[in-house]
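Hey, sorry to bother you again with one of my protein questions. There's a protein on my desk that I can't quite get my head around. No rush at all, and the record is pasted right below.
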Amino acid sequence: MKWLKAFLSFVLAAITILALGWFFLNFFKSSNALLEVTTPGVKSKVFLDGRELGTTKFLGEKLQVGDHTLHLVGEIAGVAKKVEFSTQITLTSQALTAVNYDFGPNQEFSSGDIRTLRPGSGLSVVTTPNGAEVSIDGQPAGKSPLSKNPTQGVHKLRVVKSGFATRELEINIEPNFRTVVEVFLSAIPFGEAKKLEDGRLKLYDLSTDQASLLSNPSAWSEGVFFFEKNANVDFDALIDTSGNVYYQKKAAWDDKVKKNQEVVVGYLGRSADKALTEKAKAALENLKKVLGEVVQAAPQQPQAQVQILATPTGTLNVRSGPSQNNPVIAKVNPGETYPLLEESAGWYKIKLADKDGWISSQYAKKL
């Protein structure tokens, strides 16, 4: 009987040890994933399933294996609001999930990629938006989403779609893992900025046929202001098809208007329209009216005048420059008055009906 009790105790102890070993082994396996997050040029907070883990550049170790919600919150210089990005990621046991995200002013104009290693082999590529052209090491591979089986090692991936900025990255195909690459493409806010009107108000056409931009002109305007340096144009304001006006900085606009300076306006229109909508035209006329009212209200300094005095010859020579050596280009008569443009020692520059010229100040007086 004693041997039976001893045997049962031994069996129970063995089962307990095996159970504990199984528990700790699975606990280790389920908490050994790695996550790297980079946000070039932007400091971003990193949240996983609502829990803040740190800031970029971030490297997390011993993370729970499985599906998670990744949330990034960044602040961009020159953008008044915080910019955010959320997505689902998968963390794999003893593998690195790498997230590289380039923040724009909003998600429409941000880009990035997520590289995940999963059990298996080969390569999978998915893109946002779908249907992007993918090439591997310079060779066309097809449209996303796609699956391929490239050789192990480092490869160059290129993702292209009309209306979106091309994204290029290096990937590593590792043994015993399937590399899953998710690519997010940034929309291009405008192509060629075509000038429609010149003058104090310069108008440029930024029209597009891209539905994602036309459906959200407010986000589109943020993209234009953010990427305007690519067109070498500094936009002060934008007008959409509904006549809404978006100012880059309203205070800066008001200051330019008060100082009678040029302003630059862009039109966020539909390419198919070929011209501004009636609402956009009305908004443009309102902007021009504001500019005109400020010009009229600005005090105008009266232009100085000179009167021609009596001369020994009865007329006064007008020369091309302030010297007796310059040729005579016209003659004026005593008693006549002309606008004074400039002064030099012993000479006045006056404005004639069809030209400018210089007269001796000895035979003229300022009024």
